[in-house]
Amino acid sequence: MRRSSVQKFFAGKTVLITGGSSGIGKALALKLAQLDAEVAIAGKTREAVDSTVHEFKRAGFTLESFVGDLASEEATLQLVDDVLAQSGPPDILINNAGFATYRIFAQMTPVEISDLLAVNLLAPIQLTRGFLPHFLARGRGAVVNMSSIAGRIPLTPNMIYTTAKHGLVAWSQCLRFELARSGVQVNVICPGRVVTPFFDHETFREREQPREARHTVPLSLVVERTIDAIIRNRFITYIPRSFGLLAWTTNALSFAMQPAFARVVRKRLDLMEGTDPNATIRQ
Questions:
Q1: Cα distances (angstroms) measured from residue 194 to each of 5, 22, 110, 206, 218
Q2: Which residue segment(s) compose the domain that 208 sits in?
Q3: Cα distance between residue 168 and residue 161, in whole Å
Q4: Mean of pLDDT values over 10-38
Q5: Confidence class of residue 124 from pLDDT cuts 50, 70 and 90?
Q6: Model's pTM, two decimal places?
Q7: Into how many domains does the chain fold?
Q8: Which residues are catalytic?
Q9: Do 135 and 184 form a contact (C-beta atoms < 8 A)?
Q10: Nearest Cα to 238, choosing from 113, 141, 246?
């Protein structure tokens, strides 16, 4: 699609991006600002958000900013109130914030499990619920959910992240059915591994990397395909496209794929240090 058409689509539209102070969210914010959208970002800490705002200001762009820890339901609901009070409902909500830890299930703490589900699944649901009445009243709007290839195939270690992302895809599909005649669109993005601060968590740094981790998706491609998905109202977008075939074969041909896929997962587990769950459980 020509740049003039893309710019015309986004010019003047208000966009709220969670997790907008780093990684995919920050890159999307920059691209949308360049397309003359009115961009607001939400981040976990004031320091990170302000740093991004100042960086964009030096580049000639203005961002609205909000702070909220999406692991907290109270903070998530407050974020909705803050956005509505400060700038009104966005035209496009991009539920991008997320994080993962690289542990087997028996090594995870109750707090980790709760936080992973809250940030990756419950926060997008609550944020969408908060803005949806305004979308419906206008008869337009877009809910863009940043999932992962982990939302389409069963990957572990990090099974709670995988569970949350599967839930995000399923919820998005149900929501799309409900909103089919409303003028409100729902889009899901499923990228592979993108090198961003997402992987700064100590459980990723302090381990040997599996072979597939060397295959990464360019951040620019995620931005480009996300923009295209919004414009074309494509429900699910795999990045790279070959992951769509991987997801289909893993699910549709599970009886044939299961042994090979189980070997891949077993290799990932074998790289874990201290895979004895009793060695690292924390209360």
A1: 28, 12, 27, 18, 6
A2: 3-280
A3: 10
A4: 98
A5: very high
A6: 0.85
A7: 1
A8: 161
A9: yes
A10: 246
